[in-house]
Amino acid sequence: MRQAPIVEAECVTKVYPGGVVANDCVSLAIYSGEVLGLLGENGAGKTTFVSILAGVLEPDSGVIRVKGRPVRFRLPRDALRNGIALVPQNPMLVDAFTVAENVMLAARLAGLRIGLGEARERVRELSERYGLLVDPDARVWGLSMGERQRAEIVKALAVDASVLLLDEPTAHLSPPEAEALLRLSRRLASEGRSVVLITHRLREVLGVADRIAVMRSGRLVGVVEASEASREKLLEMMFGERLAKQPLSEPRRSRAAAGGVVLEVKGLWVLGDHGEWSVKGVDLSIRAGEVVGIAGVAGNGQRELLEALVGIRRVARGTIRFAGIDVTGKGPGARGRLGMAVVPEQRLGWALVPSKDLVFNVALGFYSSPRGPYRGVVVDWGGARRIAEKIVETMKVKTPGLDAPVEAMSGGNMQRFIVGREVLKKPRLLLAMNPTSGLDYAAAKAVDKILVDVASAGAAVLVISEDLEELLNVADRILVMNKGRIVYEAERPFDVEKIAAAMVEEVEGT
Amino acid sequence: MKLRVKLVERAPTERGNPLLYGLAGLAVGIVVSVLLGGLTPAGVGGTASALMTVFGEPSRWLSALPYFTAIAASAAGLALAYRAGFITIGAEGQMVAGMIVAYWLLGRVGAGLAAGLFAAALAGVLLGALVAALRLYLLVNETLASLMLNYVVVSVLNYLVGGPWSAGGFTRTAPLPPDRTLGVATAATIVLATVLLVEAAYRFTRLGVAVDSVGLSRRAAETYGVGFHKTIMAAAAIGGALAGLGGGLYLVAVQQQLTSLNTFQSLGYGYMGILAAWLAGNVIAATLASSWLLGLLYLASTSLQISRVPWSFALAVQAIIVVFVVSAVTLSRYRIVLVRESQ
Questions:
Q1: Would strands A219-225 and A460-465 be described as parallel, antiparallel, or unpaired?
Q2: Residues A400/A408, Cβ–Cβ less than 8 Å
Q3: Is the CB of B11 less than 8 angstroms away from the CB of A404?
Q4: Cis amide bond preceding A344, omega within 30
Q5: Cβ(A68)–Cβ(A93) under 8 Å?
Q6: Best residue in A342, A364, A381, A422 for a mutation probing chain B (most B CBs within 10 Å)
Q7: How close is the nearest chain A Cα to the Cα of B138, in Å?
Q8: What is the ipTM, given to two decimal places?
């Protein structure tokens, strides 16, 4: 017999402008001291639901109760004051502030008046107690996604939230980091807090949750006790009948007959945002038809390496040759014209202009591609529209329309659109960072297959990912990056233990 | 049970026509101004008559052409720069620089009109590019740099008209020769055509993709090969060219000579261009409408003062009408709904 729920949603409905029903009469209870897994494919309405619980969105109808009392949240502040904190999928911290300053800001929103000194102390204490490794004085703009995620969790704990809503918390974390976070969820629950864990990873909810709720197309399909749930049952709840029709896993082909060298990096040294060396003497070469994966814990120079390869971060030493040409001093435009395509780490603002529609974002993505919808300086908007239509069709992107802002789409659909756009360039080299981050199981598999297909069509593919499982699936070779260096290189068949060890081992000379 | 008014954002495809909403806002603004006019010596009748003289008689609308010419030229360029995230307020100085250079060529060197206007635009380009270069290479804030340059240019003008170019010891120059002047309608037509040309370049060439992506998401723009420096420089230079040309046209069509200016107020049209760009939501072609509206408001305030309305109220009427137009245009993106709340 359970006690009364701490938070209860009753028939919560939310319809977005354009008529997309994100939540259709969702009723769900959250109890103290439990980890509640919330599963669902992209666009199922999970993020909308927790955003409503956290006061980020207002429902169109329905009731939220906290400890049995009906509440109305107009702002996140109202939810914080009721002990509910959201750790969003894309961390929402003030970039120019330090972690401690962000905590102080959140605390004030939650009605706690604490000074900077106390905020720093809380960050330090929580970081140590829960092993979160967050520096209170680090400025947010210089943190990796994984570090930002941990800073968000510290922020929620610092305001003493009793209900933590973790939206895809492991999306940007390496396996050891993800494991640590899942252990943390259990520990928080054992201390009496409630943790709602949104994830696409069945293994995670099966391993850590007490109960598992599944959403599909805006509706709650059901809630099961984790002890009674199985992988098959959850997949069936998530995907319904489609599951039987769709093969979800495809073994990676054996190493393809690789062609000529497409990308060759020699002795690359790159400075980070704080003037420290982030990439230290990296050598790398990728052949046509080959998928090379770079594994590593977040914040070990992967982002800086990608930026140097794209041409938006200056190379301090070393050379980058692409398609036989030294492009070290050239910008992204020149590299794009040579056939480089990019799937960046973050969708909004890095890959897409959020407030612009799909057609505009096609024109931007193809700006320097030889296959772009341009006749000289003139934009062929009709051509851009046709490309957008093709991406939506082939990638099964759910969108309110080609003229709707891309920010109106769910994260997963944005990612499908970005991947589809970059693939349509028929690139010579595809650079992708965390390309399946935030995607559901089926969508992630589809993207992985596309990466392999692009390589099979003769392109060189570099995948930088914090999801080791993904790299094991798609890569012909895996390089492990640790403290800015490539510390280990493996070919198929991979020795996963050695790769994982190389990711977390201390590197000498750092 | 409590009733609450709520604004619900419409989907992009369901939004109202901003022009119709703007016109409705203008009508409401005029009605409210007339009602408030009852508090002044002119009364409701006097205020209504003064405003109707300007807004109610289409024949008077053309009287706003001189102001429209100057405001629209600066507003369109500012709208383009603002779309790129380049917050300059230098159109005023660029206009005055255009006037100085055009006067020098037309009034003193004896060059032809086309050369004078081209040089005026070029002066604007150079000033715009200077501000952009300061921002891009020395990280100088463009808003402050452009404002300071405005003062510098007006000071140069005042030196010239009070010194080497002074006519008869007054702080003004001799008028331009009649064959170096243009009719106001011609000048306004040139501005109209130029603004539409820039709108077309924005809408149909790479310039628009570059400007919007740099202004909204610099990181995404750079990732896919849009040059940040190149885009800012282009937006600043095009804006400068428009303002400089506007200054040249204002000189040959309206003022036809140079006179000294108050350093801080200057001509004022470059500053009004900021408001016009903002009213137009930085839509380049829409600055034509907002500039005309501001030109009419300028006329209206003059008309009100003649009708015994205090100067301060004449200014307030401008503000009231602008507020109603902006509110109405903003409202075109929302639906007003009444929500019943149970406590």
A1: unpaired
A2: yes
A3: yes
A4: no
A5: no
A6: A364
A7: 18
A8: 0.84
Residue of chain A minimizing CA distance to B215: A353
Those of residues 315-334 in A touching chain B at CB distance below 8 A are 331-334
Q: Please judge whether A19 and B11 are an interchain contact, meaning their C-beta atoms are less than 8 angstroms apart.
A: yes
According to DSSP, the β-strands at A477-482 and A291-295 are: parallel
Residues of B in contact with A405 (CB under 8 A): 12
The answer, yes or no, to whether residue A9 has pLDDT greater than 60, is yes
What distance lies between CA A194 and its chain's CA centroid? 23
CB pairs under 8 A between A and B: 100
Predicted confidence at residue A482, as pLDDT, reads 86
CA angle, residues B112, B114, B116, in degrees to nearest 5: 70
Task: Name the phi and psi angles at B97, rounded to 5.
Answer: -60, -40
How far is A22 from chain B, CA to nearest CA, in Å? 15
> What is the identity of the amino acid at A491?
E
Q: Does B207 touch chain A (CB under 8 A)?
A: yes
B217 vs A312, A353, A367: nearest CB: A353
Query: Which one of B209, B228, B229, B282 makes the best mutation probe of the A interface by having the most chain A beta carbons within 10 Å?
Result: B209
Calculate the CA A323 to chain-centre distance: 30
Which chain B residues are closer than 8 Å to A337 by Cβ? 225
Contacts of B8 in chain A (CB under 8 A): 17
Distance CA B74, CA B94 (A): 9
Q: Which of A307, A353, A359 to mutate to test the interface with B (most CBs of B within 10 A)?
A: A353
Strands A35-39 and A477-482: unpaired
Nearest residue of chain A to residue B8 (CA atoms): A17
Tally Cβ neighbours within 10 Å of residue A110.
Answer: 22
Please give the residue of chain A at the shortest CA–CA distance from B9: A17
For residue A366, which residues of chain B lie inside 8 Å, CB to CB?
A: 224
Number of CB atoms found within 10 A of residue A500's CB: 16
Are A465 and A293 within 8 A, CB to CB?
A: yes
Cβ of B206 within 8 Å of Cβ of A355? The answer is: no
pLDDT of A391: 95
pTM: 0.74
A438-461 confidence digits (pLDDT tens) = 677 777 888 888 999 999 999 999
Separation between Cα atoms, residue A163 and residue A158, nearest integer Å: 13
Q: Report residue A103 CA to chain centroid gap.
A: 23
Indicate the Cα dihedral angle A150, A343, A357, A361, nearest 10°.
Answer: 140
Q: Hey, is A139 helix, strand or coil?
A: strand
Contact A422, A341 (CB under 8 A): yes
Which tokens go with B286?
Answer: 């829409």
User: Does the CB of A504 have a partner CB in chain B at under 8 Å?
Assistant: no
All structural domains of chain A: 7-245 (3.40.50.300), 247-339+427-510 (3.40.50.300), 352-422 (no CATH)
Q: Which residues in chain B have their CB less than 8 angstroms from residue A348's CB?
A: 217
- The set of long-range contacts for A209-214, using a CB threshold of 8 Å and a minimum separation of 24, is A209/A35, A209/A36, A209/A37, A210/A34, A210/A35, A210/A36, A211/A34, A211/A36, A211/A37, A212/A36, A212/A37, A212/A38, A212/A39, A213/A28, A213/A36, A213/A37, A213/A38, A213/A39, A214/A38, A214/A39, A214/A40, A214/A238
- Quick: pLDDT tens for A40-60: 876 788 889 999 999 999 999
C-alpha pair distances (Å), A346 with each of A4, A186, A417, B227, B257: 40, 29, 13, 20, 57
Spell out the domain ranges in chain B: 63-286
* Of A97-101, A298-302, B255-259, B268-272, the least confident: A298-302
Confidence of residue A436 (pLDDT cuts 50, 70, 90): confident
A145 lies within 8 A of chain B by CB = no
